[in-house]
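Box 3.1 A note on notation
Throughout this textbook, protein chains are presented in two layers. The first layer is the amino acid sequence; the second is a C-alpha cell string describing backbone geometry. Keep the layers aligned when reading.
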Amino acid sequence: MGKGQVPVAVGEKRHIQIERMGQHGEGIGHVDGFTIFVPMALPEETVLVEIDLVKKKYATAKLLKIELIKLGNLFRNS
C-alpha cells in the first residue's frame, strides 16, 4: 500500500482477525496495515465485516458474522 492509498472501500466485505480492544470497546483489526474498528467484535475472533466508513487513517465496519472464535487453545467455528 503506497502513501495515501486506502486498501478498503465502503460496502466492501472483508474477513479480518481482531487483534485487540479499542478505547470504546470496539474490536480492532487491520487490512494491509490499515486500521479497522469493528463494534461487537472481540480479540482473537476472525470476523466477516462490511466496511461502512473510510477515513484517511482508519475505517469502521459492521460485523456480519463471527467466523472463528479462539477459546484458550481451542478454536470454534460458528
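Residues 48 and 69 are 12 Å apart (CA to CA). The longest strand covers residues 58-71.
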